[in-house]
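Researcher: I'd like a structural prediction for the single chain below. Treat it as a standalone chain; there are no partners to consider.
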Amino acid sequence: MCPSRIVLNHVTSRWGVLVLIALQQQTLRFSELRRIIGDVSEKMLSQTLKTLENDGFVHRESLNVVPPHVEYRLTPHGQGVAVHVKALASWVEDNIMDLPRSGNS
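Model: Treating it as a single chain, here is the predicted structure.
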């Protein structure tokens, strides 16, 4: 597999898409992000954030406050890819009724 396919898999994964869209407009703490996305385990969200951080799309910042917490935001590359991911997600939502789905064809 070429590197672009690996990164494409990361940004189009189930949780990758939702993380990118959620962080597109705002910086969020882990618990806020988990609440917005819903139905994602802490482990999966943590893995997704780490993967997107390693790909250069998400910036993680540990704040030295009491109690300590971590904030996540998109990098400039993350903002760029999020625009395209959101456009794809919007297209699917707009056209879902016209698409054949498993069990319906």
